[in-house]
Amino acid sequence: MSSSPKEIPLAHLIKHGWGDRVAHAFAPFAGPSTVPGRVVCVYRGQCDVATPTGTIRADTRPLTGADPVCTGDWVAIEGASSPRVVAVLPRSSALVRSAADRTSRHQVLAANIDTVVIAVSAAMPVRSARIERLLAVAWDSGATPVVAVTKADLSDDPAAFAAAVCAVAPGVEVVVTSATTTAGLDSLRAALNGTAVVIGPSGAGKSTLANALLGVDAIATGAVRAADGKGRHTTVHRELHSLPGGGVLIDTPGLRALGIADVGAALESVFSDIDELARRCGFRNCTHRTEPGCAVGEAVDAGQLAADRLQRYRTLQRESDWEASRSSVRKATERKNRDKSISRDQRAMYRFRNRQR
Ligand SMILES: Nc1nc2c(ncn2[C@@H]2O[C@H](COP(=O)(O)OP(=O)(O)OP(=O)(O)O)[C@@H](O)[C@H]2O)c(=O)[nH]1
Ligand SMILES: [Zn+2]
């Protein structure tokens, strides 16, 4: 046995996704009284963190910023009797949405994720725009999206449903599942990699699916209101669980309105079919409206591309551009405020010096 402080028992951390990348990221923070940990659940001013010696509650108030940590973050912890988070390690990926309150702030839904599972209920009609929006956020995170069609047992024709989903999710694996019959669960397990996060609207069956993958009822689930098929927002926290066969799963509360952040390049992945066509347009900066030799327009005319899909692409692009301009305004304001406070500090310092003379 070694007495080196760096020799930490890692079994509990490995279960929560510890690996070479994280070990490397933690190295600069390592110290005799510092341990690594992964944020499992976030509360106001506190969070639950999986550490080498088990999951503990830690204080996040030493950190600055509005939402200093989020579920999935790797952190450095100090203090055995009253543990506190002293640093957040750089994120390898982050699922970000634009704040619903229209402040220009963004909300990080989950960090350090490898797979984004988009839950789409087969008990409801396909909502293309919503799926594309979820895909935009997923691709933008840096992780790989997978669509899990849920509640296949409630659909008359799950295959047709899946085909309609595939049409708006080119290049994305679509797995048809039912937590009730357990159909498709093994295929979904095989599609997961590292840390997976499940997102989707309330009532889509995210928690039920997560429980089925976990093999235990670790997460409370809710009954869907019969009248409108809408969920009641059972899940309140984003919570990280370790999967029995390896890997990690984060369950999230239903996303009612999902504002996209500046997702620029991610839209090319979401609409890779259109992007592919656009490469063949006569003009490089073709807007696919009235230009001659527009391959996108030709595909619409030939019935190969749905006109409404092109329309939704434009809508998301506008929203993303608007978010991009908003965030550059925000950054400029932040800079101005920082400069203001620096000059305030400088004035205070000069006053102080003058008094010393
Ligand atoms: N028939 C059937 N019902 C399901 C299936 N999966 C989930 N449900 C039901 O759908 C309802 C909503 O499921 P939840 O897992 O709570 O949905 P959720 O997406 O986690 O909802 P929020 O926590 O509100 O975001 C519950 O009544 C589940 O029993 C399934 O595979 N088949
Ligand atoms: Zn064009």
TrEMBL record:
Every CP-type G domain range: 101-258
Which cofactor does this sequence's record say it needs? Zn(2+)
Tell me the InterPro entries matching this sequence: G_CP_dom, P-loop_NTPase, Ribosome_biogen_GTPase_RsgA, RsgA_GTPase_dom
Record keywords? Cytoplasm, GTP-binding, Hydrolase, Metal-binding, Nucleotide-binding, Ribosome biogenesis, RNA-binding, rRNA-binding, Zinc
Q: What is the UniProt remark on how the cofactor binds and its stoichiometry?
A: Binds 1 zinc ion per subunit.
- Spans annotated as Disordered: 321-346
Residues binding Zn(2+) are C281, C286, H288, C294
GO CC aspect terms: cytoplasm
Q: Where in the cell?
A: Cytoplasm
Compositional bias ranges of the Basic and acidic residues kind: 331-346
The UniProt record lists the EC number as 3.6.1.-
What Gene Ontology molecular function terms does this protein carry?
GTP binding; GTPase activity; metal ion binding; rRNA binding
Ranges for domain EngC GTPase come to: 111-256
Coiled-coil zones: none
Pfam families documented for this protein = RsgA_GTPase
Main location per the UniProt record: cytoplasm
Enumerate the residues binding GTP. T150, K151, A152, D153, G200, P201, S202, G203, A204, G205, K206, S207, T208
Q: Which GO terms describe its biological process?
A: ribosomal small subunit biogenesis
Task performed by this protein = One of several proteins that assist in the late maturation steps of the functional core of the 30S ribosomal subunit. Helps release RbfA from mature subunits. May play a role in the assembly of ribosomal proteins into the subunit. Circularly permuted GTPase that catalyzes slow GTP hydrolysis, GTPase activity is stimulated by the 30S ribosomal subunit.
What assembly does the database describe for this protein?
Monomer. Associates with 30S ribosomal subunit, binds 16S rRNA.
User: So what family is this one in?
Assistant: Belongs to the TRAFAC class YlqF/YawG GTPase family. RsgA subfamily.
Q: What is this protein called?
A: Small ribosomal subunit biogenesis GTPase RsgA
Q: Which gene encodes it?
A: rsgA
